[in-house]
Amino acid sequence: MSAEFGDLLLHNDVRWLSKGRVLERFWNLREDVADILQSLNTKKAAEFFTFIQDSDKVVLLAFLVDIMGHINTLNLSLQGADKTVVELQEKCYAFETKLSIFINDLEGGKMLHFSNLKRCMTADQQACFQLISTFLHHLKVEFDERFKDFRKLKPVFLFIADPFIVQPDGEWTSVTASIFPNSNSLLQMEAADFQASHVLKVKLNEVGIAIFWSKFVPDSQYPAAKKLAISMLTTFGSTYSCECVFSTMNTIKTKHRSVITDQNLRNAMRIALTGYSSNYAAIMKSKQQLHTLY
């Protein structure tokens, strides 16, 4: 392997969603990496070899592999099409709870959620233990701070997710008043009507919240509730859609298609990104009818 790499130490800029996997792969290959570094006669290789042989550094690396694996799992759950802000905030709240579990697990000494750390950490590495514990506490505070604005809207999200389980005159109407002033009384009446409708309750369970509010809740009967729901559900909860656009553009506009016009690029991207499926049978039928006229 040393002959393959020569005396070059490779550096790559790794994308966020791949960082956890790269760390995991490096952890699994760390002994082979150490052998390669030891065989290379360079100053930089010697520095890396010293690092990888340091037991405290290895413990911290093991912790990073474990925690990045958990964060990557969260990150992947936030990706994908048709994810609403209601669903995404639930994932983030769940991870905050998991962070408390991680802290208790670590400080209790069980390390059920830190399998790599458990295998290499010893009782005399208290400095590493304290550093890891402090990091987890700071991470929990960071999550709490980052999502505190969404937490204020949690009662509203609960109503949108399931309008049949909230109190019609509950806290959610007071929170909504900060978004749509003077809407409390109307929302309370509409919520009471909602909860009396067995048909709407069945439909919500069948189609999910996005389609339910957009297609099956009548504007005429529930104008305030629908306005509230649509305003929340159309909020961008993730950059996933934007990243898909850039990825698609990079796939379409390669060096081999350097003369593609802006209009053709837009058309190609619309075809690639839209979920719309053309009714080719109807299009062909209309063309045939047009042909018979002539």
From TrEMBL:
<dbReference type="GO" id="GO:0046983">
    <property type="term" value="F:protein dimerization activity"/>
</dbReference>
<feature type="domain" description="HAT C-terminal dimerisation">
    <location>
        <begin position="196"/>
        <end position="268"/>
    </location>
</feature>
<protein>
    <submittedName>
        <fullName>GTD2B protein</fullName>
    </submittedName>
</protein>
<dbReference type="Pfam" id="PF05699">
    <property type="entry name" value="Dimer_Tnp_hAT"/>
</dbReference>
<dbReference type="InterPro" id="IPR008906">
    <property type="entry name" value="HATC_C_dom"/>
</dbReference>
<dbReference type="InterPro" id="IPR012337">
    <property type="entry name" value="RNaseH-like_sf"/>
</dbReference>
